[in-house]
Amino acid sequence: MGSVKSKDGTLIAYERLGSGPPVILVGGGGGVDRSENAPLARELAKSLTVFNYDRRGRGESGDTLPYALEREFDDLAALIEEAGGSAHLYGVSSGGALALEAVLAGLPVDRVGVYEVPYDVHEGAPDRHRQYTEELHRLLGEDRRGDAFELFMRLAGSSDDDVAAARGSEFWPQCEAVAHTLAYDNAAMGDGALPAERLAAIRQPVLVATGGSLDPHMAALGSFFDDAADALAEAIPDTERVVIPHQGHVADAEAVAPVLVPFLTAS
Fold first, then answer.
1. Rounded to whole angstroms, how far apart are CA atoms 80 and 75?
2. Number of domains observed in the structure of the chain
3. What is the pTM of this model?
C-alpha cells in the first residue's frame, strides 16, 4: 500500500504487487475503488510489477475540485514516476479511453492494453452523448446520486430488473457515493464518438480486446463493444485486435492475464 501526490496536491492511493515491467491498471466507470481490478492485479503480478490505484474521487484517493481531465493525467504521471519513469497502461471500459488520452497527452507510456472501450461508432453518437451528459450533470447538480447512477446503468444497457436489483443491494450506497465520478469518466469519452484522427497519432503498440460473449446485463447493446473495438483497431497504426473467448464486459482475470502478459512483455 502507498500513495503518490499528484500535481495539484491530491493524494492518490495505490497497491503495488509483483516484480517485472511496470503496468498501471486504470479502472472504468462505476467502479467504487481499486478492488474491481484486484483479481487481475494478482494474476499479472506473477510476471509484472502492478500498480492498482484508486482513481481520484474513489476509494482512498482524494478528490480536489474543480475536476479536470488533465488532473487524471497528472495522477497517472505521478504513478509512472513512482514506477521508475515509464510504464505500461491497461484500461477497462472508459478507463481504456482515459489510458489512450493519457498517451495522447504525452505521458511516458510504453504499451497500452484496452478492453471494451465504449466509444459510440454509430450514427448520432454526439447527440446521444450530449443528452446523457446534460442529464447526468442535472442529476448530480440536484444531488440525486442514485438517479445519476441509474442513468449510467441505463446507458450501459441495464434492464428494469437489473436496476431494481442494484438499488436493493447492499452495494447501492457505495454506488451512490462515487456517482459524481461518472462525470469524470464521461469527460474521458470526449463527445462519445471515436476520435479516429487523434488516435492515429498514437505510436505505441496497443492491444484492443473484447470479450467473446454478450454480457446478459448488457444485451440491449448488441455488437456495440465489438464495433467500437474494430474501429479503434483500424484507427491506431500499431494494434493487436483480440477477442477473449467466453468473457463479458467484466472479464475473468484468469482469462485476461494470458492475453495481456505476452503483449506487455514483448520486446
1. 9
2. 2
3. 0.96
